[in-house]
Amino acid sequence: MQNELVNNILESISKLNLLELSDLIIKIEKKFNIAVEEEKPEIIKEKFDVYLSEIGDKKINLIKVIKDITNLSLKESKDLVESKNALIKQNVNKIECEEISKKINSAGGKVEIK
């Protein structure tokens, strides 16, 4: 008897169109107080921005490293080093971020990756 009832309900549900089925699902959730949490896909960031957070005490060496990384002129590299939280490079992959970070750390500076 119970199996027959379930089969009849499933048969009736299978005759519904998508809008009716959606409405039925919403009503079932409300009637039986069912909270359905949607799974949100985890967003994996692939591109990063590298900022200079600290200069350190080897400013001249840092300017040379920044010049090599950014292909800026010596004056532009100096201005970048002297500005607070300057954007060094934008939209770079993780491997390049690590390489930039190592070069800047070896020159006495520190980076922030966002």
Automatic annotation (TrEMBL):
Domain Large ribosomal subunit protein bL12 C-terminal: 48-114
Large ribosomal subunit protein bL12 oligomerization domain mapped to chain residues: 7-34
Keywords tagged on the record: Ribonucleoprotein, Ribosomal protein
Top-level taxon in the UniProt lineage: Bacteria
UniProt GO molecular function: mRNA binding; structural constituent of ribosome
GO biological process, one term: translation
Pfam families per record: Ribosomal_L12, Ribosomal_L12_N
Any Gene Ontology CC annotation: ribosome
Subunit structure comment from the entry: Homodimer. Part of the ribosomal stalk of the 50S ribosomal subunit. Forms a multimeric L10(L12)X complex, where L10 forms an elongated spine to which 2 to 4 L12 dimers bind in a sequential fashion. Binds GTP-bound translation factors.
Family to which this protein belongs: Belongs to the bacterial ribosomal protein bL12 family.
Record's function text: Forms part of the ribosomal stalk which helps the ribosome interact with GTP-bound translation factors. Is thus essential for accurate translation.
Protein name: Large ribosomal subunit protein bL12
Source organism of the structure: Carsonella ruddii
